[in-house]
Amino acid sequence: MTPRTLLAALVSTALLATPALVQAQAGGxxxxxxxxxxxxxxxxxxxxxxxxxxxxxxxxxKALADYFAGNARAAAGPLYTWLLSAPRTHENYAWGQYFLAxxxxxxxxxxxxxxxxxxxxxxxxxxxVLPRALETLRELTDRPHxxxxxxxxxxxxxxxxxxxxxxxxxAHYQQGLVDLRVGNERxxxxxxxKLPEGSxxxxxxxxxxxxxxxxxxxxxxxxxxxxxxxxxxxxxxxRESRNExxxxxxxxxxxxxxxxxxLEAYGLVKLPELDPGRAxxxxxxxxxxxxxxxxxAALGILTTLDAPSFRDEFLPDKYLLRALIYRDLCHxxxxxxxxxxxxxxxxxxxxxxxxxxxxxxxxxxxxxxxxQGATRRAARYLEVLELEGERLGRYAGSFxxxxxxxxxxxxxxAHAEARRTYQAxxxxxxxxxxxxxxxxxxxxxxxxxxxxxxxxERVKKGAKVVAPPEEELLSPSQVGFTFDGEYWNDELRSxxxxxxxxxxxxxx
Length: 508
Fold this sequence. Notes:
mainly alpha, Serine Threonine Protein Phosphatase 5, Tetratricopeptide repeat, two-stranded antiparallel sheet, about 0% strand
């Protein structure tokens, strides 16, 4: 899709009644129900489960020693057993929750560990344990996690007056994000102003504010673009956030038809060494070079997008741009083939859209929707829950019956909720992908019609071939090799296609 398109992006209950069974008597009147047999006393209520057997504190001490000896597997089960019988007012109860959480996290059960850390944060019964729990929760937010449980219910609802500096900064940042989501930028700015200057949270807060303002303004000004440019060079942000800021600069400049500036901003995107890169980044750069008249360079980038790394990417605009380039160079038959390639490749998806089928079951649309934004985060969190749930079976013997049963229920509930959240986000995202595909298909049909007219256009006498636009040739320090179908990651951004123009110009 074009940079312009990417810029535009950010239960009833049924009552079941059982009809009464009526028996007809000989006289036609319904028979009265037989009275229930009299009993001397009411049926006893279901017996309450017996209280947990008292576990001595020595079990806690032994489990703690196992944890510090590096044996989290041996510590987890006894810690849980001790917590079942210990009163919540016990001086070590919060410590038991904390070290059980750390044991589970060390064993790869990040969600279960987050559940116990969140309990500590909500109960706030031990002032010495709380900062450690919050710091561990903050570390968990760098991975796929339960955003409602940790971001909203813990950091989004904390009393900010008593927190240590690092945890307090992250809490201010999260509460500012909550305010931005509900449209209250003034309150968000108040939270963000309390972040330590020069901290990573302060940089992330500026990025969140800029993205929010970008959605609200119709004509982005130079100041907004410069702010994004500054963030693209801020080392306190993650590489992904810096790249997103650079892409925002490129897309805003493209929108303002500053194509050289947009191309310069795309060059600011830094990828890991030998990384194949992003398909959307290459496609946007191809559109920018096309607007600059560098059609052969744009066609070279489209060749890059045929590499095996990108063949499953959802890029319907790729075929449209290829058809436009062939049309501009008057290669009309290749233009028609490029246009038809879109409808051929996405035939199943287009048919599903027109038939109004469940689009979440379409493989291409589902994959494209799951690779973006909130839907991507929900999909990754669901994958984590599935992996950790499968891993749980390997620890059934080590954990013991009570802890294993408890964790099984915990993961079943979390998986059901994560599945519901993912499905809701997927349904919304897949509709956007379907709209993108329909727009590209409509443009391709117009392209086919226009190219068809050109194919049968008569050439008048005296017409001459139009000289193609000059493009920069290889410098003496550069070497060119004929493409033989092999793709190398370090060459993906340097392909160029030599294609002569067949256009003719009529004499006046």
